[in-house]
Specification:
By secondary structure, the chain is of the alpha+beta class. The chain has 4 domains: about 325 residues, no CATH class; about 200 residues, no CATH class; about 120 residues, no CATH class; about 110 residues, Serine Threonine Protein Phosphatase 5, Tetratricopeptide repeat, CATH 1.25.40. The chain contains 32 helices and 17 strands.
């Protein structure tokens, strides 16, 4: 007869093997082992990161460094997570870079059920609970809705593989923490594991860390529990110090997400696909609370998982206040709910005859359920892992990159956003240009990692009407090739890749854009009139503006038309340049003496500049970051939109991307944590070999399989008050309240003041100033003041001889407010603007509408007779 324990292990092995085989059937090894670059979503956009990390950073023993290929340059992996790329680099010598990348993206899908199984075992769940926990995690993996949120197979395929590593390690941490706390094993092992989680994903460490506060609810000695959790947190932070300390010290130099993404009414928060597990989990919570008296207490493991779900939901609520994407926390809550359902099923089967077969059957039912409900995973996996090289547009994309081939020192390339990119392997295929062509581009996959993000998306909106806007609080531009080409020349972009007929036709009609090559559907245009240099001498003296509110001021500067000649530098040092006289107007121009010659040598993390005139300020067309250091120059100063200005003090200047005190302290902290943990393990081992000391009074301990928390159970009476639960309760409340307290800053306080300035400037015939004041006031005002300001701006632009922009202002009013007291004025103004622009038929249409609908207004009386009358 087979011993019960052996039977349990056999069923566990069969169940886990079934899960892994089904996942292997989906994530086909034959495709994973093809030496092609993975496609789909953001996935191929991470491939340049992997190659740069493997070839440039890792050989120097570095986890992060400067990447010049996107967003005018940005710190690579300083604000993202290196664990997947470390694993890929470990595999690369054996299978090559493309296969290592594929295996590294697929591995976390297999790890999540295994980590869930291990976590349940560590929590003390008896057979078949761990197996059903793994099965519940597998069901969660098959969830296909909201694939950009994270944690599922679908999310992994969109490029969120780091997140999947993070959520798996987070679940494993919860199991290790529960065991260490309840069995008094000390905080070192959970602390070390917590330190590993942020190497996979930062969101996961926030969730896991806050979920650990559950133990304060049941704590008889809250201070002891606080001390335990505090050591876990400190050790976890210290272990990850080499990653976290540089990230936190430089976190202020990222572009935050300050607006909510969650639509509260959507079923995506509680998807119908997961309802069976959610329902069982809620039933388990209800039963353990209802039967607490009869069974000697609640099952803390179920409450622990429920608390983890609440913390995920709370973090999602607080996302905008934290400056991160709120929906990325929802999968933590969903997975915790699934695991709660699996745990409840496991407890229900613990004492059932034939529980092994029943559990195995439930796992198979779950796999069949996921497979039956899956609609896109198999085709999506085939699409991704067959590789870019198998895509319809790959030959054309390859030829395009061959035509663009160059190096770091060559000017940048801008690519129009267009759905046609999907046929080459990803809607964001253009972000792979730095790898395939060697040339830098504008947009990249890590849009929070640079300060130039809003400027880059603004240009994207000028180049294409369908460009994305991931930052909802920012109003970008409309299609406008005039402004776009000015911006591209300013940022040292020499080529534009057009895909839409709209952009291709607009560029073909221009004298300052020349068609270089047509590789359908791509049209490659050369932008004429640029310097093709990354360092240029300024032609006008820079002006200084205070650092406070610099982001908004920088975007104001960048969106002015025409682009200001005088650079705007953000500094609180009164000795730096002359102050900006009016923050709402273009900086006044003080010409600098011409005739400066500049030479540059650009490397990955260094820029050598030779100038003929020390003391003459230079504009460096690379993104500013505090890690840049100038040798032989004052600066670099942060300049709009987020570039660098330096003032050379000698003929040769070297800019270097440098390591900081945060890097050195972080490394020291990690080494100290590892050394201290090793010493603690040695001390525990030596102590375990000593003869045990007889206890004066034995502790009353309930077996951990009953879900108790025996660490705090003793013969001593409990203290009169248990205040520990106030801490996690207050945290949850704070996270939820943050959702309602935090609001995206509403610009509006300056509206009336700007209106006064615009009106005064118009009366004084300072039409340029009036148009600029009105531009800013419009964004800060509501109707009817906004309508009046649109008319005022349109009239000012007409007086300046800029009829196209004037027509745009009047059209905005007519679209937003088709029937207001200002409609007649807008029709009159737009007819004049269209006439001046040569749009005779459009002007005639406005005049007819004005005479037909607003004949009694003074604006209709000011019209001449209609043509033909």
């Amino acid at each position: 007869m087979v011993p019960p324990r052996t039977r349990e292990r056999l069923f566990d092995a069969l169940g886990l093997l079934s899960i892994l085989l089904v996942l292997l059937d989906y994530l086909r090894p034959g495709l994973l082992l093809l030496p092609t670059v993975a496609a789909g979503g953001d996935t191929p956009c991470h491939y340049p990161t992997f190659t740069w990390f493997h070839e440039h950073l890792l050989p120097q023993g570095r986890l992060h460094g400067w990447y010049p290929g996107a967003y005018l340059g940005h710190p690579l992996l300083l604000y993202y997570f290196p664990l997947p790329f470390l694993l890929m680099s470990a595999l690369a010598p054996f299978v090559g870079l493309p296969i290592a990348f594929k295996l590294g993206t697929a591995l976390p899908v297999f790890l999540l059920p295994l980590f869930s199984y291990a976590g349940f075992r560590l929590m003390g769940f008896r057979f078949p609970g761990p197996l059903l926990g793994a099965g519940a995690a597998a069901v969660f993996l098959f969830h296909e809705e909201n694939p950009i949120w994270g944690g599922t197979i679908a999310s992994t395929l969109t490029g969120e593989f780091s997140y999947t590593y993070g959520v798996g390690l987070g679940v494993l941490f919860l199991g290790v923490l529960y065991r260490s706390y309840t069995q008094d094993r000390g905080p070192v092992v959970p602390g070390l594991l917590l330190g590993l989680v942020p190497f996979a994903h930062g969101y996961a460490v926030l969730w896991a860390g806050l979920a650990s506060t559950y133990f304060l609810f049941a704590s008889r000695r809250p201070w002891k529990t606080v001390g335990f959790l505090g050591v876990v947190a400190v050790l976890g932070f210290s272990t990850a110090g080499v990653l976290l300390l540089p990230l936190l010290t430089d976190w202020g130099y990222t572009t935050p997400y300050a607006d909510p993404w969650i639509t509260v009414t959507t079923l995506g928060l509680v998807p119908a696909f997961l309802w069976p597990l959610f329902g069982v989990g809620l039933a388990g919570l209800g039963l353990t609370v209802a039967l607490a008296r009869r069974r000697g207490g609640v099952d803390h493991r179920l409450l622990f998982l429920g608390h983890a779900a609440l913390m995920g939901a709370g973090l999602a609520a607080a996302g905008p206040a934290l400056g991160v994407i709120d929906v990325r926390f929802v999968p933590f809550a969903q997975l915790a709910g699934c695991l709660l359902g699996g745990a409840t099923l496991g407890l229900a089967l613990e004492r059932v005859e034939g529980r092994g077969l029943a559990a195995l059957g439930l796992v198979l039912v779950g796999l069949l359920y996921g497979d039956d409900r899956s609609r896109v995973l198999r085709s999506w996996i085939d699409w991704n892992y067959s590789g870019l090289e198998a895509k319809e547009l790959w030959p054309a994309f390859r030829r395009l990159n061959d035509a663009l081939e160059g190096g770091l020192a060559d000017p940048r390339v801008a690519v129009e956003y267009n759905a046609l990119h999907e046929r080459a392997g990803s809607i964001r295929m253009y972000e792979t240009l730095p790898f395939f062509s060697g040339r830098s581009t504008l947009e990249g996959v890590y849009n929070q990692a640079s300060l130039t993000t809003h400027a880059v998306y603004y240009i994207a909106s000028e180049l294409g009407a369908t460009s994305p806007n991931p930052f909802r609080e920012i109003d970008y531009s409309r299609f406008d090739t005039d402004a776009a080409l000015d911006h591209l020349r300013f940022l040292n972009v020499s080529e534009v890749v057009a895909l839409s007929p709209q952009l291709s036709d607009a560029l073909a009609a221009r004298k300052d854009a020349r068609l270089e090559e047509r590789i359908p559907p791509y049209s490659l245009y050369r932008v004429e009139g640029g310097s093709d240099r990354y360092v240029v001498p300024l032609t006008a003296a820079p002006l200084r503006s205070p650092r406070r509110g610099w982001r908004e001021k920088a975007l104001r500067w960048f969106t002015r038309r025409p682009l200001p000649e005088a650079a705007l530098v953000f500094s609180d040092d009164a000795k730096v340049f002359s102050p900006e006289p009016d923050p709402w107007l273009a900086p006044p121009v003080t010409p600098l003496e011409p005739g400066v010659t500049v030479e540059e040598t650009l490397e990955a993390e260094a820029l050598t500049i030779r100038t003929s005139r020390p003391g003459h300020p230079l504009l460096v067309k690379m993104a500013w970051h505090p890690r840049w250091r100038a040798e032989g120059a004052a600066g670099p100063y942060l300049a709009a939109p987020a570039l660098m200005v330096i003032v050379p003090q000698q003929e040769t200047v070297v800019l270097r991307y440098a390591r900081t005190t945060g890097d050195r302290l972080g490394l020291a902290l990690t080494l100290t944590a590892l050394a201290g943990s090793l010493a603690w393990v040695g001390w525990r081992w030596r102590r375990s070999r000593r003869p045990p000391v007889p206890a004066a009074a034995p502790l009353r301990v309930v077996p951990p399989s009953c879900g108790s928390i025996p660490l705090e159970t003793s013969n001593l009476p409990p203290p009169p008050r248990r205040w520990g639960g106030l801490v996690p309760g207050a945290l949850l409340l704070l996270l939820v309240v943050a959702r309602f307290v935090h609001r995206t800053p509403v610009r509006g306080g300056e509206g009336p003041e700007l209106y006064e300035s615009a009106s005064r400037a118009y009366a004084e015939e300072r039409f340029g100033d009036a148009a600029e004041y009105a531009r800013h006031a419009i964004a800060r005002s509501q109707a009817p003041l906004r309508d009046e300001l649109l008319c005022l701006r349109g009239e000012s632009l007409l007086a300046l001889g800029r009829p196209a922009e004037a027509a745009e202002a009047f059209s905005t009013l007519l679209t937003e407010s088709p029937d207001t007291p200002y409609t007649a004025q807008a029709l009159f103004g737009r007819s004049r603007a269209r006439t001046a622009s040569g749009d005779v038929s459009g002007a005639e249409e406005d005049r007819r509408r004005l005479r037909g609908q607003y004949a009694q207004t003074p604006w209709a009386e000011r019209l001449g007779p209609l043509s033909g009358q």
